[in-house]
Amino acid sequence: MKKLFYIDACMREGSNTKKIAEAVVRELSKRYDVECVRLSEMAFPVVNNDILVERNNGFVPEEYVTMAKKIAAADRLVIAAPFWDMSFPSALKVFLENMSLFNITFNSNEKECYGLCKAEKVLYITTRGMNISTGDALEQATPYIKALSRLWGLGELSVIAAQNMDYSTEEQKAEKVKAAIAEGMRLCEKF
Ligand SMILES: Cc1cc2nc3c(=O)[nH]c(=O)nc-3n(C[C@H](O)[C@H](O)[C@H](O)COP(=O)(O)O)c2cc1C
Q1: Ligand 1 site, residue 120, Cβ cutoff 6 A
Q2: pLDDT in tens, 154-185
Q3: Beta-bridge mates of residue 77
Q4: What are the pLDDT digits (tens) for 13-55?
Q5: Predicted pLDDT of residue 39
Q6: Which of 13, 79, 106, 129 is most buried, judging by how many CB atoms fall within 10 Å of its CB?
Q7: Residue 22 C-alpha to ligand 1 middle, in angstroms?
Q8: Which domains does the chain have, with CATH numbers?
Q9: What are the backbone angles phi and psi of residue 84, rounded to the nearest 5°?
Q10: What are phi and psi of 122, to 5 degrees?
Q11: Ligand 1 centroid, distance to 129 Cα (angstroms)
């Protein structure tokens, strides 16, 4: 079976982003072997000077190497993250920094960096409080994921987003989650 790596960066209990992502990943698990990392349950360290010195001396914790190798080898990547401060939770950035490892997720030649990841398709699932659409200049999560995809060599990015959540009634929110799941199910057919 092909492999899917699922990064769950949903931080809040009752997360609407997670409701969408779990339904979509459940559907995809019929065709992919799913490996999941739930960032709300982990504490990846901020990459600081000590970590950089260790890296320069050739040391990276074995568990991070193993996880980064799984990401690099995955056929598909799913990222679920709520829209926080016009981007995504810092836990996701910290995680990605810990996974951005030379010779594993990316490499370099004499001119530039290039990716080592295998995934031809990436799915980013989010919900936003304000009425901000994917591609709006105020939306700084998708551009970052696209840029990192370039560094890591990841393929086509699809985005499923529900927006204006914080200005919707509970009923409207449930409708938006339902619509996003339906969109996800359609996307699953060609993902
Ligand atoms: C810490 C925090 C920061 C947020 N920042 C923004 C923001 O900058 N822009 C916005 O539109 N919504 C913002 N929101 C609202 C969330 O994007 C919105 O409630 C979203 O649906 C939460 O997703 P969840 O249900 O998966 O937790 C923020 C919410 C939290 C808790």
Answers
A1: no
A2: 999 999 999 999 999 999 999 999 999 999 99
A3: 5, 122
A4: 999 999 999 999 999 999 999 999 999 999 999 999 999 999 9
A5: 98
A6: 79
A7: 18
A8: 2-188 (3.40.50.360)
A9: -120, 130
A10: -130, 140
A11: 5
